[in-house]
Inverse folding.
């Protein structure tokens, strides 16, 4: 997963492996601040999306003043009411 901001900044990458576990050799030499996770399918699920939002997006957005907008797709794992509520708290 990668994300960019409206002013052209790139947020840290988020890599999801198709695996049960992540091995240390899989993350060696990765780019700085990259976050790693694993799912059996290799795709984002509710758990990985929540982790990405909490670990990558929200910390970045909290450093900014004013209102923020996060634009995403309609993948069902990207629409979690508890995370929408978490984002509302940032206002």
């Amino acid at each position: 997963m990668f994300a960019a901001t409206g002013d052209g900044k790139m947020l840290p990458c988020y890599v999801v492996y198709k695996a049960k576990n992540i091995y240390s050799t899989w993350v060696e030499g990765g780019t700085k601040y990259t976050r790693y996770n694993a799912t059996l399918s290799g795709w984002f699920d509710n758990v990985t999306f929540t982790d990405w939002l909490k670990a990558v997006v929200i910390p970045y957005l909290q450093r900014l003043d004013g209102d923020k907008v996060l634009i995403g797709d309609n993948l069902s794992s990207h629409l979690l009411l508890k995370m929408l509520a978490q984002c509302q708290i940032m206002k």
Observations:
- Residues 14-89 form one domain.
- The CA atoms of residues 4 and 10 lie 4 Å apart.
- Strands lie at 14-18, 35-39.
- The two ends are 25 Å apart (CA to CA).
